[in-house]
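Shall we go through a protein fold together, starting from nothing but its sequence? Label the sequence line and the structure token line clearly, so we can match residues to local backbone shapes. Would you write everything just below, so we can both look at the same thing?
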Amino acid sequence: MEAVRDKAVVVTGAGGGIGAALARRFAAEGARVVVNDLDVAKAEKTAEEIGALAVPGDASTVVPAARDALGGAIDIFCANAGVAPAGGPEAAEDVWLQAWDVNVMAHVRAARDLVPHWLERGSGRFISTVSAAGLLTMVGSAPYSVTKHGAYAFAEWLSATYRHRGIDVHAICPQGVRTDMLAVTGAAGDLVLTPGAIEPSAVADALCTAIEEGRFLVLPHPEVAGYYASRAADPDRWLGAMNHLQQKLEKAEGQDA
């Protein structure tokens, strides 16, 4: 794929799951890839598998180190690292702060570092792994739902502001994906995500198609488009359906207790 071949790519949260799948696909397409993850061993393992460079550490501060490792400019940045804590407004302050920091501010900090260089040269590609929760919501996790809405809004803003200046932006919004994150979502994941879960490689495939077609919104689960349209057309009906899911979740959790 011409848009990827020989490009310098950074993928955060690439020690496993969607991030590892993206890193593998970019490497297979001929890109020079930096694998970033907080888990040093996982980052190094993925990098070794695909002939990439491992730059472990905080996704919020990876850009300078990745640029040094690549020996020059970053062409494509995948803001993929994320956290999905459970709970609502009662969740602890540090839980909310971590969700904001990882799911939103890490994207902002990366863009702050990257965008000036991209504007100067007239090209760059920012890829945000959001979630269908960023378009819709997710029962059982207010921190995840709220911050993924924020991640989607930031990706939209980047595209609306800079696309005429050569910066391409993509927002990946899957539902269930068979990753370690899905495995710990408990009853909420079992109810909403697991039945239609796909492999991480399918997410990478959907992204590559979107890049080739020049599309902002990447929907590995095509049915999400219909849900998103329904939400906009009739919010009360959509909220009623979501509340019905919430009631089913409470019943399931009660049975588990």
